[in-house]
Every structure is written in C-alpha cells, then in structure tokens.
Sequence to fold (367 residues):
Amino acid sequence: MNLPSRRPPARNLRPFSIKAKLGTLVVVSVFITTGLLMVALRTKTELRFITVFSVIATLLITQFVAHGLTAPLDEMNTVAKGISHGEYTRRVSGADRRDELGDLASTINRMADDLEAVDRHRKELVANVSHELRTPIAALRAVLENVVDGVSAADPETMRTALSQTERLGRLVETLLDLSRLDNGVVPLRARRFEVWPYLSGVLKEANLAASQRGLSSGSGNHTRTDVHLHLDVSPPELTAHADAERLHQVVANLIDNAVKHSPAHGRVTVRARRGPQPESLDLEVLDEGPGIPEPERSRVFERFNRGSTPAPGPGTDGGTGLGLAIARWAVDLHGGRIGVAESARGCRIRVTLPGVQQNTRLTYNS
Fold:
C-alpha cells in the first residue's frame, strides 16, 4: 500500500536548535570583543591585552558549546558501532534534548528497537521452524528405518504413514513460502468475480477430504480432525463477490483450520457469507464452539507465532506454527479488507470484510 509521505514537523525554528546555539555563540563572542574594546578605550589599556582576553573568553565559550555538541555524537558513534556488531540493547541518552541531536538520538533508538524486534522475530522463526520440522522428519525417519531394518514391511499402510509425514513437510514449506511473500510485501492480486456458494463449498469439501485422508495425524495448514462438522451458510444463494480466489482460499482454509483445532469433540464449525455494503463486497464469518478467545488476547491473535494461551481441546490437534492467522490477515490486507475477532455468545467468531469492486482494484500490495 503506497501511503503518502508525511514530512516530519518542522523544528528548524526551535529556540534550542544547533543553529540557534551557534548563532548565539557568534553574537556573544562579538559582544565580548566589543565590550573589551570599549573598556580598553576608556581605560587606555593596550590593545594586545584586550585581544588576548577576547580570544581566551571566546575559546572558553566555544569549548563549552562544542562539548555539549560533540559528547552526544561520541555516544551515538559508540552505540552505532555496537548495533553494527549485533548489539541491539544499548540506547542513546539525551533523546529528550530539544535540538537536532535529540532528534538523531530518538531516530537511533527507534532503529535499535526495530532491529532488536527483527532479530527477535528471526530467532523465533528459526526456533518455531526447527520445532515444527523436527517432528515429521523424526517420524518419517523412524518409518523408513523400520522398513530398512526389516522391522516392518513396506506395505500400503506403512507407505501411507510415510506419505502423511511427507505431506506435512510440504505444508510446512508452503507456510514458510507464504511467510516469505508476506515479508517481501509485493504480491500480485488477481481479483475476479465468482459465485460464493460453489466456491466456499469447494473449499469445505477440500478440507473434509484432506481430513479424511490424513485421519488423526497432526498437520499444519489443513485440519486433520474428522469429528468436527463443517457447515456452510450463504445468503442469498446466488451471492457473488469480487476477490482473488487463491488468496481468499488461504484466508478461509486457515480460519477453518484454526476453528477446527479449537472445537470440542463432535463440534460444529460454521462458515457464513453475506453481501457487504459495496457492490460485490463480502462479509465472511467463521464460527466455532470452542472456548473462544479471551478479551486481552484478541488484539494479538493475528500476530506471528502467537499460539494463544488456550490449548486446543480436540483430539489429534497440536499448537501449529502460529502463522495461520497472520497469513490470513496478510491476505485480507492485500485486498484492502478487514479481519478481526467479533463478539460471540459461544466459541470464537472471526469476521472478514472484503471491499468488492470499487476499492479492490490494486494489482500489487506494497508494504
């Protein structure tokens, strides 16, 4: 999204700016020299003494002002060198100064905060990916070792187990690719008009088919529970929308996956679609019967790696990567829409609003 650039507030007129300080230094030096010269004329003091006194006074004042300017710069240089070596915890003091050095100190501190956050997210990504990849790799290795050692035969059941773990690895890689697209920030948006009922019906059938094929094996990106009933509610039946079908599939699939994981045994997940206020806009809701999302966590559920404090109550579920809802928000933002947690008497209700034809005209999304 290309946002109009905003100029920072003008601060070149501040009374404590460096320009004002240097101007004051020049004026004070001139006044001192003029005053000493007048004293010399009245007292008939030799001009050379007045010149020496004037130079000494000017040097002392200049040294005082220069120290106030160079000391913060030395500290900023030290902190910047530390940041270049990966030390993001140090901060520059004097950010409350009312001059350009205060602005520079604030900028360096914000840069250090951003780099520290990026470094923290990088470490979290490595830790989460390592954790998620370790389980299917270990399971796949165990199956293959048993076949090689003759403990188990390479029968269809054993191969299905190996295939299940391989599919899980594929889904994890696809999630990482989605995350990479999210970070790059420029993704083509191929919006088109489509009928909502057959489209969402196909998404739900695909989710049910994937669950029945994988049984109770844990996964990521597609739900694997067969005890949860998926229900589709579209009104009117001929409802149409204008969006990128592939990106919307990511949204619905991830929301269903999250809802199924937190549904009780033999629970029900409802996907509800209604017409939005704009032409071919879409209001979409995914409701489950799980424990819901506590109020303090609703603003953070769409953050990366946020798995929530409420464990998944259903059988055969795991915590996932914590990226599904973040990817769903990214895909909705790509359309210029909104996604959030809505009030619900029972369980959790995620509401998605897509803007339709009038606003959904961009081909790329620039972060």
In short: The longest strand covers residues 268-275.
